[in-house]
Write a structure and sequence with these properties.
The complex is a heterodimer of chains A (452) and B (177).
Chain A (H helix, E strand, L loop, with lengths): L9 E5 L3 H13 L3 E5 L2 H10 L4 E4 L8 H11 L4 E6 L4 H9 L4 E4 L4 H25 L16 H13 L6 E4 L6 H10 L8 E5 L5 H9 E2 L11 E2 L1 H4 L4 E5 L6 H13 L1 E3 L6 E3 L3 E6 L3 H6 L5 H7 L2 E4 L10 H15 L6 E2 L1 H9 L5 H15 L4 E2 L20 H15 L4 H8 L3 H11 L6
Parallel strand pairs in A: 1-2, 1-3, 3-4, 4-5, 6-13, 6-14, 7-10, 10-13, 15-16
Antiparallel strand pairs in A: 8-9, 11-12
Helix pairs in contact in A: 13-15, 16-17, 17-18
Chain B lengths: L1 E7 L9 H11 L2 E5 L10 E2 L4 E3 H9 L8 E6 L3 E2 L8 E3 L5 E5 L14 H19 L18 H6 L6 H10 L1
Parallel strand pairs in B: 1-2, 1-5, 4-6, 5-8
Antiparallel strand pairs in B: 3-4, 7-8
Helix pairs in contact in B: 1-3
Classes of the chains: A alpha/beta (452), B alpha/beta (177).
The structure holds adenosine-5'-triphosphate (ATP), magnesium ion and zinc ion (ZN) (2 copies).
One zinc ion binds next to helix 3 of chain B.
């Protein structure tokens, strides 16, 4: 074991009271620890982005987000940092809550010098052990927070390699892939493995809103900016401050919105609607689309300059049918997940059912698979899922009629489902395992129209 | 040689010979100690509800003494000291700066219900003085060797450590003194 050097350990002191910050800082500076201080939750989160913090001395009562809420927030992205609560208002309740939520220890102000040095000494001891363990495992360095991404197949492993490469950089990422392939999941994985993980990732579904609403959604607005704007409202650009902005379905942005976005990306600042003051745009941009942007550029539906801005690092998500090897893993994963959430015993998947899953073409990809499994878990009574429990027409995919192309089949299937659901778009999309925007796109693509 | 003024704060500490303290310090580090003739008023640092004196504001008071010109100034007080978040402190110093203070309140054996011992008390005072002055000369707590710069949270810790600096700390002092 190497000699321990306190300057290798950074303590963050979070307290709204300046004299507390100052005296704790002075006390631990004498011990040689690295010290950072924060007077509220926002500063604390910023500190965690700028420094590697090992120990947090956390006050509970603070204006704005209180210490316990801050602890919860930190625990969402950092499981390692040691949190010691120091509060003047101790109750058994808060103590229990803090410890349950993962605080290392808990003490009340004023604290005995001896107790304080003991607490920190114990924390340091734990960090030392962790670091020794880490040193042993250093060569592996795997992604964090990706437990719910299932994929052992070569194409998925390549995707995760790309995520690992790009996550720590601040580069813009474009995620391509059919509907339901897990684009949002990958966007979150990138964010959670970046230094911005201490701030939120804000998703915006560009296809879900009409142009005018989207504008105020992104930019926010001042009070009275337009009729109906009764309050000042923060836009997504602002909410993503410090974190990441995830623009989903970016291919559906109107030309006007494309220009707006391009300007923000170029100027790195923007104005709220009806606002004078410019606001800094400090976010990492992650975009996703299921359309062929290059083709849209050629047909002038998508601006070329914006395309070059966002097409810096591309991750292509394989369709589920291109990685069938993952189907069994995914299927069992979803069976377990949905059985658990419905509080049921986990049913088995029969070999025949698995065969159906393996041969189906999954136009709606993982989402479609997940929906199919969820439905099967709901309707299954026997404890063994059979092909009859699956909402897939057997034979249709496994033995396509000669001369029928995939897209013709898709068109037919969509038509059938629409009729079955009385042209209720939401319900049909759900049944198909795709989202509404995708369904609308497909209606347009196949020229499907609601019967008069 | 570096000059240090030792100032009694509030009143003269009971049972402590300041001349003895001076010799005790000068024997270990090469500084020249002057003892201020009159105690300095520190009422402003009293926290009435805690019945303790805020050591940080005492440091500020020490720095305001325009008639004290020495490079370092060390306060000694019979009153109990605190900083807001801690129940008490033995002393406080500005790291690598001018002012330091320590209290004899918890250095008396009687405080712990033990028989009075002038010898122990003097030893503790000298160690506390050296420790706080060590901070003003840029030393942090020493963790590897027996050394007066070991941190002490119990009076027993003070008794255990030597009234002297370890070699690395001494080398550091050699550079600054
Ligand atoms: N590799 C995977 N492992 C586990 N679950 C997955 C995986 N990929 C996708 N899913 C699940 O499938 C569903 C759809 O994923 P997601 O929303 O990320 O897809 P998407 O590509 O963004 O779809 P769309 O284009 O329709 O927006 C989610 O519930 C997600 O958790
Ligand atoms: Mg999505
Ligand atoms: Zn000290
Ligand atoms: Zn030493």
């Amino acid at each position: 074991m190497t000699a321990f050097d306190p300057s290798d350990i950074t303590i963050m002191i979070v307290d709204d009271e300046p004299s507390v910050r100052q005296s704790l800082a002075a006390w631990f500076e004498d011990d040689g620890y690295g010290i950072v201080t924060a007077q509220n939750a926002a500063e604390a989160l910023q500190c965690m982005q700028d420094h590697t913090v090992d120990i947090i001395l956390l006050d509970i009562k603070m204006p704005g987000m209180d210490g316990l809420a801050l602890q919860d927030r930190i625990r969402e992205f950092n499981k390692e940092v040691i949190i010691i609560i120091i509060t003047a208002f101790a109750t058994v309740d808060t103590a229990v809550r803090a410890l349950k939520a993962g605080a290392f220890d808990y003490t009340t102000k004023p604290v005995d010098p001896d107790e304080l040095s003991h607490l920190v000494h114990n924390a340091v001891e734990k960090i030392r052990l962790q670091r020794e363990n880490l040193a042993l495992r250093e060569s592996i360095d795997h992604l964090q927070f990706v437990d719910d991404i299932i994929g052992e197949s070569a194409p998925m492993q390549q995707v995760l390699e790309l995520v690992k490469t790009v996550a720590p950089t601040d580069s813009t990422v474009l995620i391509l892939g059919e509907s339901g392939t897990g684009k949002e999941l990958i966007a979150r994985a990138i964010h959670m493995n970046s230094r911005r993980r201490y701030f939120p990732i804000i998703p915006v579904n560009c296809g879900a809103l009409p142009e005018t609403l989207l504008e105020s959604e992104l930019f926010g607005h001042e009070k009275g900016a337009f009729t109906g704007a009764q309050y000042r409202r923060k836009g997504k650009f602002e909410m993503a401050q410090g974190g990441s902005l995830f623009l989903d379905e970016i291919g559906t942005l109107s030309l006007k919105s494309q220009i707006d976005l391009l300007r923000v990306l170029e100027d790195r600042e923007f104005h709220r609607l009806g606002g004078e003051r410019s606001v800094k745009a400090d976010f990492r941009l992650i975009c996703a689309t299921n359309v062929d942007l290059e083709r849209e550029v050629k047909t002038a539906i998508f601006r070329e300059d914006l395309y070059y801005r966002i097409n810096v690092f591309t991750i292509h998500l394989p369709a589920l049918r291109e990685r069938r090897a993952d189907i069994p893993l995914l299927a069992t994963h979803f069976v377990q997940r949905h059985a658990r959430s419905m509080n049921r015993a986990t049913p088995e998947l029969s070999t025949e059912a698995m065969d159906v899953l393996l041969t189906h073409d999954w136009p709606g990809n993982v989402r479609e698979l997940e929906n199919a499994i969820e439905r099967a878990v709901v309707i299954n009574k026997s404890g063994v899922i059979t092909p009859a429990d699956l909402p897939l027409q057997i034979g249709r995919n496994s033995a396509p009629p000669r001369g029928t192309s995939l897209s013709e089949m898709e068109k037919e299937h969509i038509q059938h489902m629409l009729d079955e659901n009385a042209w209720n778009i939401s319900r049909t999309a759900e049944k198909l395992g795709i989202d509404r925007v995708t369904l609308y796109n497909k209606l347009e693509k196949y020229g499907l129209k609601r019967p008069e | 040689m570096r000059e240090v003024t030792v100032i009694p704060l509030g009143s003269h500490p009971r049972d402590v010979e300041l001349e003895q303290l001076k010799t005790g310090i000068e024997r270990v580090i090469s500084v020249e100690i002057t003892i201020a003739p009159r105690p300095l008023d520190i009422d402003g640092a009293l926290d009435v509800s805690r019945k303790q004196y805020h050591s940080t504001s005492i440091l500020a008071t020490l720095l305001q003494q325009s008639d004290v010109q020495t490079e370092r100034v060390l306060g000694i007080t019979p009153f109990d000291l605190f900083v807001p978040v801690l129940t008490f402190v033995f002393g406080q110093a500005q790291l690598n700066d001018r002012a330091a203070v320590f209290s004899t309140f918890r250095l008396h054996n009687e405080f712990y219900g033990l028989p009075r011992s002038g010898e122990l008390l003097m030893g503790r005072c000298i160690k506390e003085a050296l420790h706080e002055l060590g901070h003003t000369f840029g030393l942090r707590h020493c963790i590897t060797q027996p050394c007066v710069m070991n941190s002490s949270t119990y009076v027993e810790d003070i008794d255990l450590k030597p009234a002297d600096f370890c070699l690395p700390c001494r080398e550091h002092l050699g550079v600054v003194l």
